[in-house]
Amino acid sequence: MRDGVADLLTVDFSRFPLAPGDRVLDMGCGGGRHAFEAYRRGADVVALDQSEKDIADVDAMFASMRAAGEVPQGASAQAIVGDALALPFPDDSFDRVIISEVLEHIPDDKGVLAELFRVLKPGGLAAMTVPRYGPEKICWALSDAYHEVEGGHIRIYKGDEFQARIRESGLRPYGTHHTHALHSPYWWIKCAVGVDNDKALPVRAWHKLLVWDIMKRPLATRLAEKALDPLIGKSLVVYATKPRPTGETDARAAADLTAGASA
Q: Residue 235 half-sphere exposure, CB side, CA atoms within 13 Å?
């Protein structure tokens, strides 16, 4: 379930460092917000989604970014239609993998994490985000239509269960946080008045607040969200690394993990 107010970053790139030239996969890229940010940072980006429409839109945005000079020289980006359960890439293809608000939609989430692990290079980093348990439970309690739709949410992860699932795939989590606290009340209101009822006054008012916050980034809402994120943050974000074979070390990987953990 997508909404225009969700077009902001869920992954914190201070906890998920990448460098120009890194090869980055955005699995289930949707509208492409994380792929665009990685591209702006000089990465070689592959945005993948099963939606042909989304991929066409993302590809058009990549072209617009290049034309506007918004990306560093040498960076590359492509958008492809593909299946997260059968990625069309060799093993150990990517330095970074992002999968944001996708796993809650897919019955075989273990299969998706196995594919993520396969294509991530040893020492590489993954950022995985899902709806947080508490705010999501409230949405489900308020509205069946919120999740009982084609392609909708089929599960709610508890934080420890999600991290256990990640560890089972072979990845090692190194950090977590919650984000988008101001979005939780918005979705609770939508679920209460009808998820498709965008004309309801409370929905329009809160949507206006969110758009204003995204565009202006005022100090008051930034401080409020920072205080509320640990309590009602809409998304849970987990950062993890793919271990290197025993005995192998990588100075950059160690530095990235230290930077990510301290952030």
A: 21
Kind of pairing, strands 44-49 and 94-100? unpaired
> What residue has token string 């492509």?
78
pTM, rounded to two decimals: 0.91
CB 25 within 8 A of CB 102: no
**Please, are residues 229 and 143 in contact by the beta-carbon 8 Å criterion?**
no
Block residue for tokens 């699932």: 165
| Beta strand residue intervals within the chain, DSSP E | 23-27, 44-49, 76-81, 94-100, 120-131, 172-179, 235-241
- Please, what sign has the CA dihedral across residues 181, 186, 190, 196? negative
Kindly state the DSSP code that residue 244 receives in the 8-state scheme.
P
Of 25-39, 195-209, 242-256, where does mean pLDDT reach its minimum?
242-256
Query: Partners of 47 in the beta sheet?
Result: 26, 79
Q: What is the pLDDT of residues 6-40, one digit of tens each?
A: 458 999 999 999 999 999 999 999 999 999 999 99
Q: Packing angle between helix 183-193 and helix 133-142, nearest 10 degrees? A: 10
DSSP state of 224: H
